[in-house]
Amino acid sequence: MKDCNITLIGCGNMSRSLIGGLINDGVKKEHLLATDPDAKQRLDITAQFGVTTLESNEKAVENADIIVLAVKPQVMRQVVSGLAIVLKNSSKMLISIAAGVRLTSFTKWLDTPIAVIRVMPNTPALIQSGAAALFANEHASDIQKNNTEVIMRSVGTITWLDSEDLMDAVTALSGSGPAYFFYFMESMEKSARAMGLSNEDASLLTIETALGAAKMASLSHYDLSELRKQVTSPGGTTEQAIIKFQQGDLGQLVHEAMSAAKQRAIELSQRFGE
Ligand SMILES: NC(=O)c1ccc[n+]([C@@H]2O[C@H](COP(=O)([O-])OP(=O)(O)OC[C@H]3O[C@@H](n4cnc5c(N)ncnc54)[C@H](OP(=O)(O)O)[C@@H]3O)[C@@H](O)[C@H]2O)c1
Question: How far does residue 139's CA lie from ligand 1's centre (Å)?
Fold first, then answer.
């Protein structure tokens, strides 16, 4: 993997975090190349990481073993179609991190059998704390799958899915999930301020509580329900809050919210896959 040439198409936030993660993991910057139509984005990447950048996607993929497509779903078709000639019958591998673009769209646009691995990352990848789900098409070899794991592990944790259809659920869970936690934390912070805490204390205690709870959940061998019960003494303060959440049917509300996100992911993949 360390000798593979990796071209990243798009010099935005995700590319930046992947380049940072790969260099941290010992990948030589000479093995990395990035493209973007925006000269400023290209200059920023070179200034930050010393990585060479090009304007032309076609030229940049010529010597690549792995091509990471890190552009918005709306421009994916145009970007991929522009690589059709250079990728005809190629043994290169594509990794798409775009939400909602299905694997069959790539082989359709390129009109060639090619290894494509679809990845659904999330925003904490920007601080090397991401959670990504992966699914490969039938053309991807074990080595190519392993290389994708190495790339994505440089910015967080990964898991392989059994079916591409599960990507829509993943989008609703870990893809959109950081925003759910921000919203919940926002509400806790607001409530704490209403109870008289200073902005600083409300913010500090909310964030550190979320961080501590997530760390406990990650390190403990108890499941989430058991961990909750352990901090909910009968007749105590936490129990009163939990009863309120249950009366408002928080569980059902979360399920409805995630189902709406999943439905939107399905609609977007229909739109971007055409
Ligand atoms: N950020 C996240 O946390 C996150 C999470 C999950 C999935 N993703 C997915 O990751 C992908 C990238 O996200 P991002 O946040 O990095 O987006 P971004 O910051 O907007 O980066 C995309 C970059 O691609 C450039 N670009 C546009 N057209 C191009 C072309 N024809 N050739 C080469 N580059 C081109 C854009 O330039 P312009 O700005 O000039 O258009 C921009 O610099 C998206 O598909 C997104 O769905 C992101």
Answer: 25
